[in-house]
Amino acid sequence: TSAAAMAASMQTATLDVTNMDCAVCPITVRKALEKVPGVESAKVDFKTKRAVVAFDPSKTSSDALTKATADAGFPSSVKQVQ
Q1: Residues 76, 66: Cα–Cα separation, whole Å
Q2: What is the DSSP letter of 2?
Q3: What is residue 20's DSSP assignment?
Q4: Distance (Å, rounded) from C-alpha 39 to C-alpha 69?
Q5: Nearest to 53 by CA among 72, 68, 70, 74
Q6: Mean pLDDT of the chain
Q7: From its phi and psi, is residue 26 left (phi > 0), alpha (psi between -120 and 50) or beta?
Q8: pTM score, whole prediction
Q9: CA distance 44 to 42
């Protein structure tokens, strides 16, 4: 598949993440998200308490993303999926 076709199938989820109280927390959240099959990238912002995750919806779901953060000790909720 071409890069353009792959990019067209990707979705981006914005998650509101709770319990992040130190500079190491976003690293833990990012690593948890990156372990989910189908996740292309994860960026976690400590200041805004938000994660932006690019993922393949044919391989994973926003529910799997919130489960991954919760399992790591950081419950999250989906703010937006594009």
Answers
A1: 5
A2: -
A3: -
A4: 13
A5: 68
A6: 93
A7: alpha
A8: 0.89
A9: 6
Residues of the chain with pLDDT under 50: none
The answer to whether the CB of 28 falls within 8 A of the CB of 42 is: no
- 3-state DSSP assignment of residue 33: helix
Tokens at 33, concatenated: 């998200």
Give the DSSP letter string of 34-69: HTSTTEEEEEEETTTTEEEEEE-TTT--HHHHHHHH
Question: What is the H or E stretch that residue 1 is in?
Answer: none
Note the pLDDT of residue 7: 56
Q: What is the pLDDT of residue 9?
A: 86
DSSP state of 8: H
